[in-house]
Write a structure and sequence with these properties.
about 190 residues; mainly alpha; 9 helices; about 65% helix; about 0% strand; disordered C terminus
Length: about 190
């Protein structure tokens, strides 16, 4: 199991499916693209000093948290996280992620609007992702994380290195290089 799979396993997908009124497979597909999109956005924002400092401050607010139930998730905070991570490109990221989710869910033209589902899922999973990253980066691991598949060379920016390790998994690379391409990194720093 790679890091993104371990992170995705922390997310209450069945509860999310019930909350937004979709089949669990559709919710799973939306979560499977939302998580790498968020991690990729965090990694892009952490590449420069200002972005890394801003992200570290946000991580400090999520350290020690490990929301496991929907009732534990602050979706208003999730909306802020999504806005900060993706900035003005949020809708483009949702559209790109939705195209990958449609493939994963096997959606057809007459199926649910995957874009709307991904847009609903992002603020639900964002606080979980941030808590996971905070606990991994700052210690006090609420959940034991699997070891990264391959540790990339250090850039001198430990936060960017850690996030890069998360997205270096095949699942992360498929999402980042395939659907999202150059969209990430447009958030606020």
């Amino acid at each position: 199991m790679d890091d993104l799979s371990g992170l995705i396993n922390l997310i209450p997908i069945g509860d999310i499916a019930k909350k937004i009124g979709v089949d669990e497979n559709v919710a799973r597909a939306a979560v499977a693209v939302a998580v790498p999109a968020i991690v990729g956005g965090l990694a892009a924002n952490a590449k420069d000093d200002k972005g890394a400092q801003s992200l570290e401050k946000a991580l400090g607010h999520h350290k020690g948290r490990a929301p496991k139930k929907l009732d534990d998730i602050d979706e208003k905070d999730g909306e802020k996280i999504v806005s900060n991570v993706f900035g003005a490109k949020k809708n483009d990221v949702v559209k790109a992620a939705a195209s990958k989710a449609e493939v994963k869910a096997g959606s057809k033209a007459d199926g649910p609007d995957i874009g709307a589902i991904v847009a609903q899922v992002l603020p639900i999973v964002a606080p979980i992702v941030l808590a996971f990253v905070a606990n991994q980066f700052m210690g006090n691991k609420a959940e034991a994380a699997p070891e990264p598949a391959a540790a990339p060379a250090s850039s001198g920016n430990p936060l960017a290195d850690m996030l890069g390790g998360l997205i270096s998994s095949p699942q992360g690379q498929e999402m980042i290089t395939g659907a999202l391409g150059g969209l990430l990194g447009a958030g606020r720093k």
